[in-house]
Amino acid sequence: MSYKAVFFDIDGTLVNEEKVIPQDTIDAINQLKQQDIALFIATGRAPYYFGHYAEQLGIDSYVSFNGSYVVHQGNMVYENPISVKTLEVLENLALSHNHPIVMQGAEAGYANHEEHPYVAESFNDLHVEVPGYRSSYWKEAKVYQALLYCESHEESLYTSSEAPFADLSFVRWHRVATDVIPGDGSKAKGIEAVLKHLGIKPEEAVAFGDG
Question: Is there a single domain that holds both residue 49 and residue 99?
Answer without folding.
Answer: no
